[in-house]
Amino acid sequence: MAFATGAAAYAMGTGWNRWITIAHGVAGFGIVVLTPWKSVVVRRGLGRERAGKAASVFMGILVGVSVASGVVHAFGVRLLPLDVTAMQIHVGTALAVLPFAVWHVVARPARPRRTDVSRRAVLRAAGVTAGAGGLWLATEAAVRVLPVQGGDRRFTGSHEVGSFDPVRMPVTQWLDDEVPTIDEEAWRLVVADADGERRLAAPDVAREHRSVRATLDCTGGWFAVQDWEGVSLDRLVAPGDARSVVVTSATGYGRRFPVRDLPRLLLATTVGGRALSPGHGFPARLVAPGRRGFWWVKWVTEIRTSDRPWWLQSPFPLT
Length: 319
Fold this sequence. Notes:
Elements: H1 2-11, H2 17-46, H3 53-74, E1 79-80, E2 84-85, H4 86-107, H5 119-145, E3 159-160, E4 189-193, E5 196-200, H6 202-205, E6 210-218, E7 222-232, H7 233-236, E8 244-249, E9 254-258, E10 266-271, E11 274-275, E12 285-287, E13 300-306
């Protein structure tokens, strides 16, 4: 439950994500509530000599680090030593747990029993849920009462950094992406749609500008509200009978969007009244309101319509 809700909260940027984030917090504290009972089982297991003991212990350490780093992030500690964020530790250790968890279930099978769905078991589960919910409420109250930065968290759990100040807004990329060097005069935007394929220079893209105030909510655990200026994709793209639009970066990074989103998507060339910096997507980046940061493709060089549905892609980019 903690992993599933965490993955969903990581992917979504709309308002109802708040309930997923709450469920994620309660599930995480549920692990804490279960610790006294689980520790009895752990002590018995440590007293036996059997294969895989070290792997089980390491899995337990990873789970503990993941839960602890999530709490640290909630209290407003975004950056850790070596420029690592608490959110990166939280997500990284959660992903590292997966293979160990699968192995643990296979190597330590537990057969279903009738008592698993008994009235007593249901009451115990309700008690654990209530205890976890109480811990979550207590933590939220502490975050808002104590002099920490956690109280500014968005419903996604992200902290505010650099709103209306693009210079302070962090520069982040997805996984192995790097900031490219792009010559604005040589840069061309390829648009392939129902009207054919054409190549647009920077002055052509800048002709029809509008301003959009939108929140860039990065999966790294921060968000920033900015005024973005650019051209709506529905002014650039003639979809025809296409089902989706693929926006691709100079680095090869890309995401697929439903055609119905074209009026909401903005190809931005400036932010806060000034040109985009290289780290923020110069000369043009996508602004996708209501979506998490990994949808906001930077250094856009190609926009292409497609007959494939928008959801026919990896939920998270693989590179």
